[in-house]
Design brief:
alpha/beta, three-stranded mixed beta sheet, 11 helices, globular, Enoyl-CoA hydratase, ClpP/crotonase-like_dom_sf, Enoyl-CoA_hydra_C, Enoyl-CoA_hyd/isom_CS
Length: 262
Amino acid sequence: MTNLQQECFIEVDYSVKNIAVVKINRPEAKNALNTQIRKDLARAFNDLSFNDDIHAIVLTGGDSVFAAGADLKEMANATSTEMLLRHTERYWNAIAQCPKPIIAAVNGFALGGGCELAMHSDIIIAGKSANFGQPEIKVGLMPGAGGTQRLFRAVGKFHAMRMIMTGVLIPADEAYRIGLVSQVTEDADTIPTAIKMAENLAAMPPIALQQIKEVALHSEDVPLNAGLTLERKSFQLLFSTQDKSEGIQSFMEKRKPVYQGK
């Protein structure tokens, strides 16, 4: 990758038009998520949320590992009060609340906080070497960044309970079968596939993409009728956009649309 902006343990690559590739770069610790990485990720995603030139984001840990969990050295002697005062939820929220489509490109381990980080994305592309898991139980803990919530919503109670209660690792093919990942590729193709998909998303109307993400995520927490109302209102809102007019006109004229996010 070229044209890199270095942010401590995070690299942000802007070399592909309208796309940001966010890479965790702490290979000596298998990209274990220490406090600094969480801060750097939050800063990067906050910046990208307000960057109108970026229409889609790829999140990766590189070719060998996504993130092998939280950095246990930082937790070994921590008290409940110390953990509370760290307010790590603020760092996670920067990713969860990002309005841009996020594609996670996962090779190798995505364990504990790494699995939770992948689940903060909208689409997960996994290499065949990928393994997902919530093994916190094996060190006397439990997931603390969405593992008991997002995982249940993704794969259902019985698959989630097996993963959380036993700490079992789930290979990529099984993760695909149970609905945890969107697509499985050869390891060498994981990041290129994610970037290609991001390019396709970046060519879509940005306001419509953002409305789709907002409605879909918010509707998880409301009754069906409320979700349908939110969907309908957002659908109606899009009729005031220039992109809607461009999309329909280009379809009728049998040409490629040019969307401007207006």
